[in-house]
Structures are given as structure tokens and as C-alpha cells.
Amino acid sequence: MTGIIEVENLSKQYGSGTKALSDVSLSINEGEIIALLGPNGAGKTTLISIICGLVVPTGGTVRVGGHDIRTDWRAARKLIGLVPQEITLEPFETVMNCVRFTRGLYGEGPDDAYIEQILRSLSLWDKRDAATKELSGGMKRRVLIAKALAHRPKILFLDEPTAGVDVALRRGMWQVVEELRREGVTIILTTHYLEEAEAMADRVGVINKGQLLLVKPTAELMGEFGKKTLTIELDQPLTLIPDELTGRNLRLTADGRSLCYEYDTRAERTGIARLLGDLAELGITVRDVSTQQSNLEEIFMSLVSEPRQEESA
Asked: What is the DSSP string of 47-89?
């Protein structure tokens, strides 16, 4: 099935020689939420900017809704709404007029009822007549989202949408994102709040040094790269791990009251049953056990900090 966005062998090299993107290929399905993760300077914003027609690529092709972004740019851009990282608003214009103006830029006629709907959903209706300079940073970011939605786009790009936004506003914004997903809007976001990507995204893509390292369903990524740690709380503290248990990937906590055992969730056998049996044979009484799954942040850091071996052809 052809995605609503098709990126093939995309590259971008600036005049200074800096390679921002290198041979990136990506297919995004209609109606999904995909999170793009990567450190600062990884190429996330460059990728978004090229798809949105703001930056010209050095090589490769991009199609949005079947339209080439270079040869059929007008039709492609009409499908897209973009919420940029930077807050750029006319400081003396009202919230209502800002959104009206953006709608007009896309050739759409007046529709104040629809704009009211957007502003209400973003808790901006009470601020409709306020100049944007009077708003807080979080409210200004909401105005950017309203502007991006003004022409009813099928695709919404959110580039660090919750940066500088307080917890209450952040939760409200994600409720809006979830509602847009239910309406069939395709959403591509970049974020440093990895717990949000883990909770919201259908798929996660990891970009580092201009290369797309992987794109996987979030649950699959968690399962494939996630480790689990079994914490075994002991009835009596130990001073050392017994010799009989060496080589088991065990760690004794500083107070000696717990053993931590890390295991691979994909392994056919975890070794937990054998470990607990050996503890019983050694006369070590277990008070309690608990497990903790690696989160997306830990997985992300392992991907961008360790060299990945290229698969052989």
C-alpha cells in the first residue's frame, strides 16, 4: 500500500559541505502517528522542512498524497499543516485574525465557525480577540497549531510542539492530537519528551547524523530492544554475590538487600526459574520480586550512542 508520504533516497548537503541527510527513505501511512527521535542536529527538522517544501533537497524524491513536492508543489503543500519549533507570530494581530489569515493563504474562503471549533478545542476561544504578544509561550504554541489546522490539512507536522509548555497545556495538546488521529489526520512529530512518543506514536523512527537508523512499530521496538530487569529482594542482606552465581549477569545493590538480574525479553529462556532455584538451594530466602521494562528513552540512547553494525548484503 502506498503511503500518504513517500520519501525515497533523500539527501541534503549544504554549500558548506555539511550533510544534513543521507539517503533517507521512509513511507508514512495515512492516519498514523509517527514520532521522529534524534539528538539535536540529527536531521529531523531538515527532513520535515524538505517534505513541507521549505528546503530544497540535494537528491531523492518526496511525494505527498501522490504529488511530487517539486513538480506539483502547490497540491502537495495544501495537504500539509506545519507547527514549527520557533514561535513566529505577528505580535500586534489578534488570535482570530492570525488563524483567518493563514486559512486565506491556502486559498480557503472564510469559515469562522470552523475557526471557532479549532480555537475552542485548543482552549483559545477566550483569547480570540487578544493580541498574540499578550499570550504566554504555551498559548502562542497553541496558536501555531490553530494556524496549521486552519485549512483542514490531511497531514500535520509537529516539530517539538510541547517545548516550553507546562504540564496542563501539554496534556491538553495531546488530547487534541488524539482527536485529530480519530479524524484520520496523519501526524508526524519530533519530540524530546520520549514518554509522549512512547504513549502516542504508532511507529518510531530514529535519526542520527543524517541517517534514518530504523523505523518500527512502537511496541515492536520496545520488545526488540527493551531489556527487563528482575529485582530480587532478599530476606537477609548479602555482602557478596556467591561464587555459585557468578556469570549470571547479577548485580548486588549497595545495601546488599537486593539482587538485580537483567535479561533479554526475546530470549527463549530467561534463566529466571533456574536463578530462583539456585538461590533456594544456597539457602538464600527471597522476600519479593519485581520487574522493570526499559523505556523508550533508554532504547533511544543505546541506538544513538553505540555504533550500529551494517547488515551484510
From this structure: HHHHHTTSS--SEEEEEETTEETTTSHHHHHHTEEEE-SS---
| Parent domain of 242 | 227-293
CA-based radius of gyration for the chain:
25
Q: 90 with 238, same domain?
A: no
Domain end call among 222, 256, 283:
222
Which amino acid appears at position 262 of this protein? E
Query: Measured in whole angstroms, how far is the alpha carbon of residue 30 from the centre of its chain?
Result: 17
Say if 299 falls within a structural domain: no
| pLDDT, position 132 | 94
How far out from the chain centre does Cα 190 lie? 5
Residue 116 is predicted with a pLDDT of 95
Residues constituting the chain: 313
The pLDDT of residue 294 is 67
- The pLDDT of residue 313 is 34
Based on the domain organization, do 269 and 156 belong to the same domain? no
Q: Phi and psi (nearest 5°) for 161?
A: -70, -20
- Among 204, 222, 240, give the residue marking a domain's end: 222
Q: In this structure, what DSSP letter does residue 311 have?
A: P
Chain CA centroid to CA 58, Å: 26
What was the pLDDT predicted at 152?
93
Residue among 83, 78, 114 nearest 96 (CA): 114
Model pTM score: 0.75
Give the pLDDT of residue 268: 64
Sheet-wide strand order for 227-234: 250-252, 258-264, 227-234, 286-293
pLDDT along the chain (313 residues), means of 10: 89 90 95 90 91 94 95 94 88 94 90 93 92 89 92 92 70 80 91 78 91 89 75 92 88 93 73 89 91 72 61 37
Question: E strand or H helix at 259, and its extent?
Answer: strand 258-264
- Strand 211-217's sheet: what is its strand order? 80-83, 155-159, 186-190, 33-37, 203-208, 211-217
Which CATH number belongs to the domain containing residue 251 in this structure? 3.30.70
